[in-house]
Each structure stands twice: as C-alpha cells, then as structure tokens.
TrEMBL record:
This is Integrase catalytic domain-containing protein. Gene3D superfamilies: Ribonuclease H-like superfamily/Ribonuclease H. One of its GO terms (molecular function) is nucleic acid binding. It comes from the Eukaryota. InterPro entries: RNaseH-like_sf, RNaseH_sf.
Amino acid sequence: MSTLLEKYGVVHRVATAYHPQINEQANVFNREIECILQKVAHPNRKDWSQLLEDVCHLLVEIEHHAYWTVKRCNLAFDQVGKERKLQLQELEELHLEAYENSKIYKLKVKCFHDNMILRKKFKVDQKMLEVKTPHKHLKEFHVVCSTMRPHGIPKDYIKMKTFPFSLVGAAKDWLYLQPVLFNTWGDMKRIFLEKFFLASRTTAIKKEICGIRQHTSETLYEH
C-alpha cells in the first residue's frame, strides 16, 4: 500500500483531534461535504448527523450519473461521420427538390404569361408600330380636323399644329426628332408619307394602276 501511495505521490500527514485531514484530497473532500451540509441543513446544525449519509453519497451519485451520460455518448467517430454525411446528403436533397419546384413554378408562370401576350407579326422595313396604314391615318385625321372651325384660322395651319398629337410610337418619335421645321401642311404630309409609306410600295401601286386595261368584252363599271 505504501508503494502505491508513493507511486502516485500521496503524502500522508500526522492528524490531530482538531485537524483530522491527512492530505490535500481529504481537505477538498471535506470542504465539499461542509458546503453541501450548509445548503441542506438548518442553521443550528442539529440535523447534520441525519444528512451526513446522503451528503457523502451525493458526490458518488453525481459522478455515477456523469459516467453513464458519457457512456451513452456516441464515441464511435466513424459511425458519427457516416451519420453526419447522411444528414448533409438529406439537406442537399431538400435543397435540390426546392430548386426543382421553383424551376417548375417559373415554367408554369412563363407559359401562362406567354399565353396572355398578343403576338404581332412585323414585316421587313416596317417603321410604324400602328396597325393602320399612313393613308388611313391621314384620312381619319382629316375627318377630325373638319370638325374644327375656329374663326379666322386657316385649315392647313390647324392640321399642321394638331397633327403631332395624333401620332404615337415610332411616328411620334420621328416627328419630334426632325431637325427642320415644316413651313406648310403639304410639306409635313409629304415627308410623313415618304417616311412611313415606302417609295417601293408607291411605285408598285402606280404600276398596278397603269396596268389596268379595258378588255373588249367589259365595260368601265365592271372592273
């Protein structure tokens, strides 16, 4: 026994009646017991002897519970690593599933949005965004201007001042970007038709008109 105590450095001292401690470990143990008794016993310390048994076993029970708690911990690091990998894979799977669901939702919304769009077919060299032709626009504009009859103001002056407000889209932008001001309504109308009614179309219409011939078997009103 003395060899074992000497091996672990346990030094015993001579105890007296008033100082029964024999080493530092006993000192610490006695102080812990005293603190516990002061918390659970009455101030007069008459019931210390009744609680001494519970106090002495309290530290052992705490150590025992701590031991079993540590024992229940999973100290198999390989198994813990595998479980952690599985958890990360499940998290990644949830992330991919959420991404796939959001992608499907966006496709559905896009299809719904595309179905609500009115498709328009544009031709080559088409300058206007309006559906009607420039000649039809001018005809309607003349009808509107015919209702305006201010006293002492020429009709051409009214048309030249109100015509910009009848345009929209590319035609309106074109008119406002013109570097030269128009002096007469005829100049404004001519340049407008040259811009938005191509010369090739005018030539083709002229050829069609010039190509009209009266056959021997038809009258003028039959064409």
